[in-house]
User: What shape does this take?
Amino acid sequence: MSLLWMYEVLDCLNFKCFKHPCSVEHTCPVCVFNRLLELNNVGFSNQTQSSWPLSSVIGSLFCCCSEPAFMVFYGLSPGKHMKLSSTAEEVATFFAKMLDHEYTTKEVFRKNFYKDWRKEMTSEEKSKITDLNKCDFSEMSEYFKAQSEARKAMTKEDKQKIKEENERILQEYGFCIMDNHKERIANFRIEPPGLFRGRGDHPKMGMLKRRIRPEDIIVNCSKDSKHPKPPPGTKWKEVRHDNKVTWLVSWTENIQGSIKYIMLNPSSRIKGEKDWQKYETARRLKKCVERIRAQYRDDWKSKEMRIRQRAVALYFIDKLALRAGNEKEEGETADTVGCCSLRVEHLTLHQEMDGQEYVVEFDFLGKDSIRYYNKVPVEKRVFKNLQLFMEDKEPEDDLFDRLNTSILNKHLQELMDGLTAKVFRTYNASITLQQQLNEITNSEDNVPAKILSYNRANRAVAILCNHQRAPPKTFEKSMQNLQTKIDAKKEQLADAKRELKSAKADAKVRRDEKSKKIEEQLMKLEVQATDREENKQIALGTSKLNYLDPRISIAWCKKFGIPIEKIYNKTQREKFAWAIDMAEKDFQF
DNA sequence: CCCGCAACTTAGAACAGTTCAG
DNA sequence: CTGAACTGTTCTAAGTTGCGGG
Assistant: This one.
């Protein structure tokens, strides 16, 4: 495979210096560049920006503010303002912008923020500002609120202008050429500085995520393409030509020291092919999954502890669609686990529970600190093994002390080429959708009812994969509204029926049509209500996007005459273009 | 083996845009 | 026409996997 990128494309990093009508704020590369210039002391063409007040120039944040005047109160002399240096001011604004967020009340967040904020202060500021609790960010916060209100209140024309400008930026920076095809870039904007927002109980929440400078950036493009130039007076960290990888740009982030990438959009060929491969691997697993199941059931009896542990873990991964569960460095991230990293404290064994034998109660935090809670009846042999694994251990000890993801994946590789732990999640998700659709779709149903069936099948998968969401804040109210609508519609239908009865013969047909139409509307509303109620705490998006072979859904649409747009929106259709081309109505996963 | 690094997929929150009832 | 509700998009954190070097 060759990689060929055109100049214009990567030019997303080749920021230009001109006064930018900054509605896109700091995420806009142009603004970032303005800031870079300032930071690097390159000086910018004052013909374009000289009329801006100093603080508006400092920090891409303010590049369109006309009245900056940011100050932090400090409580030692109540009511007094303090003018901050530009760097300290910018970090303060990050905090101010989050003031309404729960984060800013958390001790860890405040501690980390304060520590990093101090690093940006002058020595004078350091001596004056000694306690975060005495700093009042509300004036700053009000300023940003007012800004956002002003944005909302803009005229239609102004909003249109912004839209056009965004479109222009997308056209200019959002594409590249790979293998002679113009492809959309996914995240073409450099991540702006801000305060780190970890999920769950993250020990690093509130730390300052620093601004990315040209010196941090590695550009990856083909040798013969003109690579984008760094801003004047600066250098890229590196320009390389590695066609074994798919990323266009990378940099190292300062919170965890991990690498961030700019890559192509899911609609791109390179991502689409990979996606297809993923589902093909899962379909190969389908062919040998019974053999593998027989194998691990057999291994529950193994003489060797490590093999028993491996077999029980694999059983969980298969049956419960758990993630592999890599080890994590303690204190660096939130305390979450997957299958191999389960600890004794995450399981409770019940010899008998609710009339069922050998029940395992799982309670742990998984990816993104989403709670996994499940009570599962298991086979006697699994239960006995778990008792064995938990013997003489402390709650914080590893359940599978002879196992990790590397061992497990090596074993899986021997069972099937390309098999890893995550393939089970894909396989079980897709096969569940297929089975559910086959089972519950009624060809006599109308379109909305069929879509309800589809959503129910999708929901079964989301439940399996534990894709949860907090019930929307407005849930109860919106259900009530819907019920009101349904009642009104029922009323309307009753009226229509009465009219039908009393109507003269010549009007009967017309009246009949009318009540049929109302009936249909009522039905649609009722279906909607059911769907929404069942979906209260479940997020369908993740499984739809990442776990369900799109060919299943497309074939289903074709078979039952459902327009694909009812299942996949525009973006999703772009992502699954490969499958839309491929799937016939008789496709089965 | 273990560890750290690199590259890629998967994830929910936040935000923006659209729709629809009043 | 307006604002609330809903839907779609963007953002970037948090996982998995594989590799190479000691």
Q: What stands out?
A: Chain A is about 50% helix and 10% strand. The first helix of chain A runs from residue 7 to 10. Residues 270-417 of chain A form a domain with the Topoisomerase I; Chain A, domain 3 fold (CATH 3.90.15.10).
